[in-house]
Design a protein that fits this description.
By secondary structure, this protein is of the alpha+beta class. The protein has eight helices and 25 strands.
């Protein structure tokens, strides 16, 4: 029987098939859905009935060849308009790796969906139409990928067949994008010339671009290093539910259930409960109905502590040696995703892991200008698709990590308390831009107790 320690060690074994989460992005009609469809089709990841349905719809439209974009454009409105609206998730595998793919929309008004798709991605594929080059939406997607700390970015210069497969066209676009993305702090950029419609350099190497000696898109996806070092980050365990059966069999059982956000938990480890700051020791860990000595992210477990401490949903359990500091003043970069503006003085809810508290937007120091990455100071508000810095004061302390250290415990949502609408996705701590510190603007107390 394999021990828990052996199971944990096997996660780092290169012989075990790894998982890559990646997202596609780009402007309207750059060919994202066609690329995804070609990738699925040429890698033999499409079921027969799916292909037959695509062929039937394509024939109804009078197309000679199957429109592979239909493999991902699943909404009726998407098929009718020929665009992507929602994030389409696809799961496929090759002999070398398993994949979770998020095909995100290109329209400016659906940039919020790109934030959703890229938030958990290990890699982002940004498409550019070879005829148009790098445009504003391309820069916006590069900025979002940088903000979300996506470690690998692929620039797929599509529709090379429409520019005669010219190396000079590809080289100019790759140079411009690489310079821009590097200024944003993107750590790794790989440029690949492709034709998603014809299949050039998607799965199979292109016979039309012998001047290119790099990998195809699939080859890169299969070989790009993906590090899931579960011991690299300190352990964070947001409590989702308190289990107290109070039955004859378990009269005194008290367990704290949730999903480990990062790191490793061990029986016997000293831990701190936040935001209260009370300490205890892990007495036991239950996983899948059995007691284990060790558990790691992203396992869902129940943790039992030695001491009877008042703990509820939203509290965070962390090793005492590496517990995060708590704060009521959150400085962060946000991607504004709602139609209504986010203004200074707005009363919001902030959702961080399993904890939701009241908050007030105290300041909006700057808004990012995508053209030259400059800062527009004190804009007063952010509108849909804006990226900017905010200072938020919360009613109760939050145990936030910097987003650069943990994408899970360094992220949060700002929510409209009136109707539950998501207003913005936030990344705590410093972003890739240089921002001014909080100003001296005074915010008067309101009459409903929202001045913290």
């Amino acid at each position: 029987m394999t021990s828990t320690t052996d199971q944990f060690a096997s996660l780092a074994d290169p012989s075990v098939t790894t998982l890559l989460r990646f997202a596609t992005a780009g402007s309207v009609d750059d060919g994202k859905s066609t690329l995804v469809g070609r990738l699925l089709h040429d890698s033999k990841s499409v079921l027969t009935d799916q292909m037959e349905a695509v062929e039937a719809v394509s024939a109804q439209r009078g197309q000679d060849a199957p429109d592979l974009a239909l493999l991902t454009d699943g909404l009726r409105a998407e098929r009718e308009q020929g665009i992507t609206i929602d994030v389409a998730y696809r799961y496929f595998a090759t002999a070398r790796r398993r994949f979770i793919l998020a095909d995100t929309p290109g329209h400016v008004q659906y940039t919020r969906n790109m934030v959703t798709g890229a938030s958990t991605a290990d890699l982002a594929v940004v498409l550019v139409d070879a005829r148009n080059g790098v445009i504003e939406q391309t820069r916006r997607h590069a900025a979002v990928a940088a903000l979300l700390r996506v470690p690998h970015v692929v620039l797929a210069v599509n529709k090379m067949d429409l520019v005669g497969y010219q190396e000079s066209v590809f080289a100019a676009i790759a140079e411009e994008f690489t310079a821009y993305a590097s200024d944003l702090g993107v750590p790794e950029i790989t440029a690949i010339p492709i034709s998603a419609l014809a299949g050039d350099n998607v799965v199979d190497p292109s016979a039309n671009m012998d001047w290119y000696g790099g990998p195809t898109v699939l080859e890169h996806l299969e070989t790009v290093p993906v590090s899931h070092d579960l011991t690299a980050c300190p352990a964070r365990f947001p409590v989702q539910y308190v289990i107290r059966p109070q039955t004859a069999e378990h009269p005194d059982y008290r367990g704290y259930a949730g999903q480990i956000a990062s790191g490793v938990l061990r029986v016997g480890e000293a831990v701190t409960v936040l935001p209260s700051g009370r300490t205890s020791v892990i007495e036991g860990i239950d996983a899948l109905g059995e007691s284990v000595d060790i558990a790691w992210a992203p396992q869902s477990v129940t943790v039992r502590l030695k001491d009877d401490i008042d703990i509820s949903r939203g509290d965070l359990i962390a090793p005492s040696a590496s517990a995060p500091a708590t704060t009521q003043d959150v400085e962060a970069t946000v991607c504004h995703v709602a139609d209504q503006p986010l203004a200074v003085g707005a009363r919001v809810l902030i959702k961080h892991t399993t904890r939701t508290v009241k908050a007030i937007v105290k300041e909006i120091p700057s808004r990012l200008t995508l053209d030259d990455l400059s800062q527009h100071p004190n804009p007063g508000q952010l509108v849909a698709n804006d990226i900017g810095r905010v200072v938020v004061r919360t009613a109760e302390p939050l145990a936030l990590d910097a987003y650069a250290d943990s994408r899970r415990t360094g992220s949060f949502l700002l929510i409209d308390p009136a109707d539950g609408t998501t207003l913005a996705a936030g990344m705590a701590g410093e972003s890739f831009v240089s921002t001014a510190g909080p100003g001296d603007q005074a915010v008067q107390a309101d009459e409903e107790g929202w001045d913290f």
